[in-house]
Structure formats: structure tokens, C-alpha cells
Specification:
The structure holds three protein chains of three kinds. Helices cover 36% and strands 24% of the residues of chain A. Chain A is of the alpha/beta class. By secondary structure, chain B is an alpha/beta fold. The chains are: A alpha/beta, B alpha/beta, C mainly alpha.
């Protein structure tokens, strides 16, 4: 359902700092896949995500979603089908607005906004139930401003907000990287639950090898703008972190 | 912080109450829009007029400078009204407009205002009809015409050139014609509609006159270079309405003194304090002035000999 | 005495509409918009010229609102389409509007309304001018606050607020942040223009210099208002605090005059007041650990889940 064909992106072209973030990348993601992407710094994994989300426009190649070419489409218009959780827990929610208001915003993702009231009365109960799913007790604080919550709580909410309207594609951009280990584990578990419950096609970028192995049903490793290794199903879950690390170094030295 | 603000408010109210206590002397509220040499001089002149008539120590002066902020004008006006001052001196147009908007009862004397009618302050110059009157800083046309005769005693015909589309010029020319006729001289006029016409217009008028008069007309002021090139050839003395025009190639001008204007306003104020009504007191224009400016370079080039008594008024503008 | 208080209230109410406009750009959208200095005069001048041309004062006032919106549109274009940083875009607009304002006034720098009827005229025959202005101004303010409160609670309004809080997130939620910013600029400056239209009718004239220092006045009022209502409250309270802040600010100025301070010291006084008020919340946070209305992200409690 998601296809990248010959996507390339370079920064600072023509200067001494020229770097090719993505080199002629081809990738296909099917409905229902949960793809994890790993790679070192500069491997291009974040660039890949940002091109899919619309933050960057590739220099060459196409991005197709269910056959529709969205390569040049603006971020906010792509948001109709693609939802995103950022690495920075502060980026996913609006600090000065309440939990309820944030959820209400997410509930309207992809829909035309009118002068109707921002949070309808009948909606409030529905949103409350959704928040209760997280099991964090936040449903009792729907009127609290997001700003008082911790990073983990905000990230959990961002995840919920992303999944709320059943997006066609869920993008997770190292979304546990900025959290402490305990919270990160909790959020990751939540991720798996939500993805499974809602049946979402997911692309998760992570720098944690164990996480990449544990979560999802397909794994790709990137190095210097190209995919250097791929595993799925048994071949993936059977991997050990050590093996993956070895493959990782192998890939690094190959391209060095 | 809330308590601090509350404390300030209460303290201020108390202070205000104290300041509001009634006084025996008549109070003159003075409001000036901003710091400016001309405006400052108006005030000085005003005070001198009061002093010369032994009134300075018999009145209380409440002076405020709005520092260019219109909102301050409003606040100052409110203050005058609440204090029930006996008279207000408003220096400059905005000041007068601000106070006139707040009171129809307290007499207001204006100064350093060009046109009271345009500013909506009076019904007409001759019969203001309300609580506002004062002096106008409009350039002294008749005095300038008199200057022409002073500089060129043999003058018979004075040429007039202006843009007939500028209201201000039409007004000044009318005044000029009256002044010329009052001196027993005659005039010839030519009009232009834009700067392109100026050269030819000047060329035609200089053949018909002994000296030229140009009011503070925006079109002519912008085209002084053209005027200069023609009058240089014809050696025609040109008296202008403003000193900037003299810098640009005119021969001479006579400007008003804001100090004197202020003094004149002071005299009017004394009349009002004595009981005369502002409604019937006409707007006065500068009655005298000695700010003559003569362009020395132009004088030399057209062969004009500067009279003894004007030698100090000669300037040589930068090329 | 009462004239001073009423005058401060009247002027404060009229200016509160500008403060509400600045609230929209500065607080809601987090943009420092200097267009205000130009758009308030644009509104003032438009209303004045319209009344002089014989247009009914109420329509003239609405025209002032429109004029303000146009000014906002201009700045939005500079900032969004031409990618000029917001601060500079506002300054450019402000400068351009100076020339435009003089043009609208037919080349002069001042238009008088002293002998013409204004929106206040109907009432000024029956009561002192300041009282009339407070009544009419107060009515307009209530209307504006009501409309703003309603608007910011709608879907579009919420999207606008989200854009101000977190543009990246807003885009991820499908919000066209460029459109929201444009709307913010237009609405905010529309309010400022409306305020200007009322101001010229109150003062009795429109002058091209009327707007000088208006952004500082608006910010000072905004901050005074926030400081007074420092406790956490809803949007309605925030809006109301803008109005109160404007009136209190005018009040303080009037009292300062009464106490004998020359107007030339007023600007220093304003600067000190604003600086103190900006600093105070930080001091408060240190003392009590609480936070103000528009929550900042520092001091988040790292609670265990």
C-alpha cells in the first residue's frame, strides 16, 4: 500500500558538505505490515520517514500511497491518511490545550474543519473512553492542560491521537528514544497493543536493536541511504541482537 | 502583584484627589503635542505677553507636553476638563482637536495651527462660533508682498504663479492680490497644473512683471529648479512663501516668528480672560515678522543688491 | 476628577480591542506582529474619511474593521507567501501603511471629525462624551469578546490555537497551518482597525501619527491584564483580562499624570512596568511552583505512571 520508487534525497548539493541521505531507494510496504527500520546516524532512516510524512520532498523518485502519487503533496494534506508520532514527546501535543481538546483535534484529522463547536458534547464521552484504553488514569483528567503531563504520558497520548482515526499508515519516528527506559517500555507495549487492536500498517524507525527485533513483523536495516539487510517473520524474530549488531557492522564496513 | 497594583491605584487616587483641590487663581491649561523648537517658542511668547501685562503671577499655568502621543492628549484634555480650568492654550493642530473634542465650554486658544476651518475647529475664520479661537501660522502673504516692495522699491507689476488645483495656493493668491492692490500695485498671474508646465509658465510671466511672488504651493516648490533657471536669465527677483523655496533657488522670503505668534496669542488670551467671547473673536494671522531670508548666491547671479538692513539675512545654501 | 477616571475607562475600552487583536497574534499564534502601528491608523483614517464622505458612522466603523483586515492580509502575504520573517513583515507593513494612510487622507496628515457625527453622537447629546463612549465602547467590546470566545472554541478556532501552540503537530493533524496563520493575521488586524476607527471618532480626528507606540501600549495592557488575573482560568477569563488590562493601564497613566510626572518620563515608566510584569511570573513560579494560564513547558512534573 505504500511504495517508494527510486527515491533520492541529498543535502548541500554541490558543496563540500554534500551528503546523500537516500540513494535510489525502493521500498514496498503491504497492508497490515509492521515494519521496523534501523540504522546508524546518517543512514537515512529519518529522512525516509520525513519523505513519507511530507516534511521533505525527494529530489527524485515517487512516493505512492495505495497507488496515489503523494510525492509532492503538502504535509497537512497527507495527514488525512498518514499519522505520525514524533521523537520529541513535546511535539505531538499542544501544551496549552487540554487533553480533551487535543483528542478532539486528532479526531478531526483529515476532515474539513468548520465553525462547529470544537469539542461536541457527545464526543466527550467517546474521547474519554479512548483515553481510558491507555490505562494511565488520564481519562479522569480530560480537562487538564497537556503541559502538566510527563513526557511518557504525552507520548502515549500522541500515539492514541495518531491512531484515533484509523490512519492508513502510522509513522513512528524513534518515539521512545527520548523517554526513560521504564516509560519507553511502557509506550512500546502500548504501541504494539494499539497497532494490533486497530490493525494499522506501521512504519517504525528506531535505534534500539532489541526493539526492532521484538516488535513488528518485518525489519529493514539502512546504511548510507540504502537498504542493506532485510528480515521478516521467522527470520526476523529468530535474530538475536548480537547477530544483528554483527550484520550492522558488516554493512558499515562494506560501505566505508 | 495584585496587591501592589491595588496599592498603586489607591495611592494615585489619593494624589489625584489632592491635585484636584480648587484654586483661587484662574487656571490656564496648556497642552503641546510634542517637543519642537517652534512650538516651544510659541509657549515662551505666550508667557511673555502675560508677563508684559502683569498677568503672569495672577494665573496658574498647568503645562503638559504629550510627547507625540495622541493618547496622552486625550488624558491631558480629560484632566483639564475635570479640573475645570478657566482657559486652555492648545499648541498645534492635534492638541487643539483633542481638547475641542472634550469640551464645548472651556475657551480654547490655539496657536501654531495653519487652518482652523480645515481642522474642524471653527465655523469660519471671521466668526469661529464656538469655544475655539487663536492664531494661525499660515505664511504671512501680505507681509511677503510688502517685502517685495521693500526689496524692489521700483516694482510696478508683481507676477503670480501657482497650481490652481491646490486649495492652499488659491487662498494665498487671493490674499496676495488683495495685498498688492492695497499697496497701489498691479498683478499678473499664470497657473500650472503640474510640474511639467512650470518652465513655460515662468517664461511667460517674467516678461510681464518686475518681480515674482510664489506662495507655498507644493507643485511650484517641487519645481523651484525650473523657476530658478528662468529667473536667472531674466534677472527677476522672486519672493517665495517658504524658506525652503529660497534654498532651492528663490531670492527671498519672510517667515513668521513662532515666538511673536505666541505673544499675539497671549494678547488674545488676555481679552478672553477679561470676558470677551471666543465665538466672535476672529482667527488672527501673524501681524509682524522679521525672519527674512535672502539667498546670497541668487542675489549675486541676478545682480540684486541686498539693502543694508537685510545684510544679516543673507544665506548661502550648499550647492 | 471623575472626568479623568471616565476618560481613562473610555480610552481603555477602545484600546482593549487593539489589545485583543494583539492577543490573537502574540499569545494565540505566538507571532510578534508590528503591523498594529499601521493598521490602527489605517482603521482610524478609513473611518474618518468615510464619515467625511457622508457614510453613516456605523458603516464607517465597519469599514475600519475591513481596512484592518486588509492590512493583516498584506502582512500575511509578506510572511507566508514571501517567507519574510514575521517581525520584519510587520515592520514592512507598518512602513507601507504610513504612505497609504496619507494617501487615503488625500495627501494631508490629519482629518478632522470635530464637526461631524460619529457612532457616539446619538448619545453625546444626552450625556458627557466619556460616558457615551464607555457605553458604546463597552457594547462593542462585549460583542468582540463574545465573538472571539465563540470562534476560538470552534473547530477552526481550535485549529488556529493548535497552530500557535505547535505548528508541527497541527500539520500532523491535517491542519493547514499557513491558512490558520493567515486567518490569525487578518482577524487580529481587523480588530485593531476597528479599534482605530472608534479611536478617531472618540478623539475627533485621525492623524497619521496616531499609531506611534501602539504595540507597546497593547503589550503593556496585555501583560498588566495577565498579571492581574494570574490564576489559571479559561479562555473567556483571558479575553476579559485583556480588556481589564487595557483599562487599568490607561488608569495608571492618568494617575501618573495627576501625580505630576511629565509625559516624557511616561515611556520609561511603561518600559519598567512591562519589564516587571514580564519578570513577575518567573518569581511567582519559584515561590509557589504554580504556573500561569498559557502553560509553558518547563517545570513539567515527572510523575511515575
Amino acid at each position: 500500500m505504500l511504495q517508494l520508487k527510486g527515491v533520492a534525497k541529498a543535502w548541500n548539493k554541490g558543496t563540500v558538505n554534500e551528503c546523500h541521505a537516500l540513494k535510489h531507494l525502493d521500498l514496498s510496504v503491504d497492508d497490515g505490515e509492521f515494519l521496523t527500520v534501523i540504522g546508524g546516524n546518517g543512514s537515512g532512516k529519518s529522512t525516509l520517514l520525513n519523505i513519507v510524512s511530507g516534511l521533505y520532498v525527494p529530489d527524485a523518485g515517487n512516493v505512492l500511497l495505495d497507488g496515489q502519487d503523494i510525492t509532492e503533496m503538502a504535509e497537512h494534506r497527507r495527514a488525512r491518511w498518514i499519522a505520525r508520532v514524533f521523537q520529541d514527546p513535546l511535539l505531538g501535543t499542544a501544551a496549552g490545550m487540554t487533553i480533551e481538546e487535543n483528542l478532539a483535534l486528532a479526531a478531526r484529522r483529515g476532515k474539513r474543519r468548520t465553525l462547529a463547536w470544537g469539542v461536541r458534547r457527545d464526543e466527550k464521552l467517546v474521547l474519554r473512553d479512548e483515553v481510558a484504553r491507555l490505562g494511565l488514569g488520564l481519562e479522569d483528567r480530560m480537562g487538564s492542560k497537556i503541559g502538566v503531563l510527563s513526557g511518557g504520558q504525552r507520548q502515549a497520548l500522541t500515539l492514541l491521537m495518531a491512531a484515533l482515526e484509523r490512519p492508513r499508515l502510522l509513522l513512528l519516528d524513534e518515539h521512545t528514544a527520548a523517554l526513560d527506559p521504564k516509560t519507553a517500555t511502557a509506550v512500546l507495549a502500548l504501541t504494539e497493543t494499539i497497532v494490533e487492536d486497530y490493525g494499522l500498517t506501521t512504519l517504525m524507525v528506531t535505534h534500539s536493536l532489541p526493539d526492532a527485533i521484538k516488535v513488528g513483523n518485518r525489519l529493514i536495516m539502512m546504511e548510507e541511504g540504502e537498504i542493506v539487510f532485510e528480515a521478516h517473520g521467522e527470520g526476523k524474530s529468530g535474530l538475536s541482537a548480537g547477530e544483528l549488531l554483527r550484520l550492522f557492522h558488516q554493512a558499515e564496513s562494506l560501505s566505508a | 502583584m495584585r496587591k501592589v497594583i491595588l496599592a498603586i491605584l489607591i495611592l494615585s487616587l489619593v494624589l489625584a484627589g489632592v491635585a484636584c483641590s480648587k484654586n483661587d487663581k484662574p487656571v490656564i491649561g496648556i497642552v503641546q503635542i510634542a517637543e519642537h523648537v517652534a512650538l516651544d517658542q510659541s509657549y515662551e511668547g505666550f508667557c511673555k505677553a502675560l508677563e508684559d501685562n502683569q498677568m503672569l503671577d495672577k494665573v496658574e499655568l498647568d503645562f503638559h507636553n504629550a510627547q507625540g502621543d495622541m493618547n496622552n492628549l486625550s488624558t491631558i484634555a480629560d484632566r483639564f476638563v475635570s479640573k475645570k480650568v478657566d482657559m486652555i492654550l492648545a499648541i498645534a493642530t492635534d492638541s487643539a482637536q483633542a481638547v475641542a473634542g472634550k469640551t464645548k465650554d472651556i475657551p480654547i486658544l490655539g496657536t501654531a495651527i495653519t487652518s482652523y476651518t480645515v481642522a474642524g475647529l471653527v465655523d469660519s475664520d471671521e466668526a469661529p462660533g464656538g469655544n475655539v479661537t487663536g492664531t494661525s501660522d499660515m505664511n504671512p502673504v501680505s507681509a511677503q508682498v510688502a517685502l517685495i516692495q521693500d526689496l524692489v522699491p521700483t516694482v510696478g507689476v508683481i507676477g503670480l504663479i501657482y497650481n490652481s488645483g491646490e486649495d492652499n495656493s488659491v487662498l494665498q493668491i487671493r490674499m496676495a492680490k488683495e495685498a498688492i492692490e492695497a499697496l497701489g500695485l498691479t498683478w499678473q498671474e499664470v497657473t500650472v497644473t503640474n510640474t511639467n508646465d512650470v518652465t513655460q509658465a515662468v517664461q511667460s510671466i517674467v516678461t510681464k512683471c518686475d518681480a515674482l511672488y510664489i506662495p507655498t504651493d507644493n507643485t511650484l516648490a517641487a519645481a523651484m529648479a525650473q523657476v530658478y533657471s528662468v529667473t536667472l536669465e531674466s534677472k527677476t527677483p522672486t519672493v517665495c512663501g517658504a524658506d525652503t523655496m529660497v534654498y532651492d533657488g528663490g531670492l527671498a522670503t519672510m517667515g513668521i516668528s513662532y515666538y511673536d505668534l505666541g505673544y499675539q496669542t497671549g494678547l488674545m488670551a488676555l481679552k478672553v480672560l477679561a470676558g470677551e467671547s471666543t465665538a466672535t473673536m476672529p482667527i488672527e494671522y501673524a501681524s509682524s515678522s522679521d525672519l527674512v531670508t535672502i539667498n546670497g548666491q541668487v542675489a549675486e547671479e541676478i545682480g540684486f543688491v541686498v539693502p543694508e538692513n537685510y545684510v544679516d539675512s543673507v544665506i548661502y545654501p550648499e550647492a | 476628577m471623575s472626568s479623568i477616571l471616565l476618560g481613562a475607562a473610555a480610552l481603555g475600552l477602545i484600546w482593549s480591542i487593539t489589545t485583543l487583536g494583539v492577543f490573537m497574534t502574540y499569545r494565540v499564534l505566538d507571532i510578534a506582529d508590528l503591523t498594529v502601528e499601521g493598521s490602527i491608523v489605517f482603521g482610524a483614517v478609513t473611518a474618518a474619511v468615510a464619515i467625511q464622505a457622508g457614510i453613516h458612522p456605523v458603516w464607517a466603523t465597519l469599514l475600519a474593521f475591513l481596512a484592518g483586515m486588509t492590512a493583516g492580509l498584506g502582512t500575511a502575504f509578506l510572511h507566508i507567501a514571501m517567507k519574510i520573517p514575521s517581525l520584519l513583515a510587520g515592520i514592512l507593513s507598518m512602513i507601507a501603511l504610513y504612505s497609504i494612510n496619507i494617501r487615503v487622507m488625500g495627501g494631508s496628515s490629519n482629518v478632522s471629525l470635530l464637526r461631524l457625527s460619529t457612532v457616539f453622537s446619538g448619545l453625546t447629546e444626552k450625556m458627557p462624551k466619556n460616558t457615551a463612549v464607555i457605553l458604546v465602547g463597552g457594547l462593542v467590546v462585549i460583542l468582540v469578546v463574545g465573538l472571539l470566545y465563540w470562534f476560538l472554541g470552534t473547530e477552526i478556532g481550535s485549529a488556529l490555537r493548535a497552530t500557535g501552540f505547535n505548528a508541527q503537530m497541527a500539520r500532523a493533524q491535517g491542519i493547514n497551518t499557513r491558512l490558520m496563520t493567515l486567518m490569525g493575521y487578518v482577524l487580529a488586524n481587523g480588530l485593531v482597525g476597528l479599534s482605530g476607527g472608534l479611536l478617531s471618532q472618540y478623539m475627533g480626528f485621525a492623524d497619521v501619527q496616531m499609531g506611534t507606540g501602539s504595540i507597546v501600549i497593547a503589550l503593556a495592557s496585555l501583560i498588566v491584564g495577565e498579571v492581574i488575573f494570574a490564576r489559571k482560568g479559561g479562555l473567556l477569563l483571558s479575553l476579559f483580562s485583556m480588556v481589564l488590562g487595557s483599562v487599568v493601564y490607561r488608569f495608571i497613566i492618568a494617575m501618573v499624570f495627576e501625580a505630576g510626572m511629565p509625559a516624557s518620563d511616561l515611556k520609561l515608566f511603561t518600559a519598567i512596568t512591562v519589564a516587571l510584569a514580564l519578570w513577575l511570573p518567573h518569581v511567582k513560579t519559584k515561590w509557589s511552583g504554580r504556573r500561569k494560564n498559557n502553560a509553558t513547558t518547563e517545570g513539567r512534573c515527572e510523575s511515575v505512571e
